[in-house]
């Protein structure tokens, strides 16, 4: 009798695990990948891997862009890519991207803020939608910075 209850318990447990997995698959968070980068790290979307920002396979890099204003020097966080464009808080529509000339986009975005960016991959013509979720520790030394984003292939 105890073995029968054990089998029923295992079945119910498996059912709840399967239900949880299926609910997560339908959520928008599960549709994209969440990544956290430290300064001088980059990301390769095809391999879904964090790599060094100076690696030729790096599609998106997070680095320090140093600037000067008179006698003062400063450090800005920057995102780098073969091509990158910031779209702000509003997610760009496919129609907006079709009308854009990707070749005219910059190769960097200084001081990334929360919002949407579209980048062109380093190795091919693929476009990826990036949503920057946070850029933490900006008031500290660059070694403490971290950038969290989600992404999806367009």
What does this 3D model show about the protein?
It is a single chain. 20% of the residues lie in helices and 45% in strands. With 154 residues, the protein is an alpha+beta fold. Strands 1, 2, 3, 4, 5, 6, 7, 8 and 9 form a 9-stranded antiparallel sheet that branches. The relative contact order is 0.17. Mean pLDDT is 81; it is low at 8-31.
β-strand percent reads over 45%
What's the helix count? 2
Count of distinct strands? 9
Q: So what's the overall shape? A: globular
| Structural category | alpha+beta
Largest sheet: 9 strands, antiparallel
> Poorly predicted ranges (pLDDT <50, ≥5 residues)?
8-31
The ordered string of helix (H) and strand (E) elements is HEEEEEHEEEE
Question: What radius of gyration results from the CA coordinates?
Answer: 21 Å
Q: How widely separated are the two ends?
A: 55 Å
Helix content: 10-25%
Average pLDDT score: 81
List the helices and strands and how they pair.
Elements: H1 2-26, E1 33-38, E2 41-44, E3 49-52, E4 60-69, E5 72-88, H2 94-99, E6 106-110, E7 115-120, E8 127-136, E9 146-153
Key terms for this structure?
single chain, 9-stranded antiparallel β-sheet, 9 strands, globular
């Amino acid at each position: 009798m105890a073995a029968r209850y054990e089998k029923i318990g295992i079945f119910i447990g498996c059912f709840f695990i399967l239900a949880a997995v299926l609910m997560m698959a339908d959520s928008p968070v599960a549709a994209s990948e969440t990544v956290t980068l430290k300064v001088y790290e980059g990301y390769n979307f095809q391999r879904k891997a964090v790599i060094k920002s100076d690696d030729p396979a790096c599609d998106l890099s997070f680095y320090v862009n140093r600037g000067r204003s008179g006698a003062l020097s400063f450090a800005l966080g920057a995102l780098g890519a073969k091509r990158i464009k910031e779209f702000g808080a509003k997610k760009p529509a496919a129609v907006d991207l079709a009308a854009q000339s990707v070749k005219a986009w910059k190769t960097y975005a200084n001081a990334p803020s929360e919002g949407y960016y579209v980048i062109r991959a380093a190795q091919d013509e693929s476009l990826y939608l990036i949503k920057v979720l946070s850029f933490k520790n900006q008031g500290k030394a660059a070694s403490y910075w971290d950038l969290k984003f989600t992404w999806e292939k367009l």
